[in-house]
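Hi R.,

Here's the chain you asked about this morning:
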Amino acid sequence: MFQVPSTQWVEHQAQAAGVEWCCVKASGTVDDEISTLEETLSELKLDAIVSGALRSDFQKVKLENMAYRLGIHSFSPLWHQHPFEHLHGMIENGFKIMINSVSCEGLDGEWLGRILDLDNVKELKSLSEKYRFNVDGEGGEYETFVVGGPHLPRMLKVEGNASFDSVRGVFTITNIH
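And here is the predicted structure, written out as tokens:
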């Protein structure tokens, strides 16, 4: 239900943003992910959760149902934003978004580790139209890792290695400072 590549490095994002980090480890099945998350959140003093869901009814409903059971609010402020406008807006607003996995026709190893900017996001849009994938990656066509943005006082410096097998690839982060 949740993105996997580079999640072990999210703590660095939290530290850089100055927010408390709470690690929730699950087995990788949807039921376990939700129940483990719910159990962890039930132990915290929260009144709401915020998700970055864009279009997945499945994910949004699972999170909303969990929030309901916990007696807290669930917010999805990005829900149903236009895919290209969402991506373009993130970049215009200072987010530095690195592609850390690709798994669809049209995206090759050259995209791995690349930071999206206004020029290459237009190229991404063109490829998405040609190869018929979601420009924002919402179908799992690619995954991302945020290395900079208005919530971070500095851009994270990421080191890693790209591997691509002609169908899919991953940028494996080895160090962040």
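One quick note: Helices lie at 10-17, 30-42, 57-70, 83-92, 118-131.

Cheers,
M.
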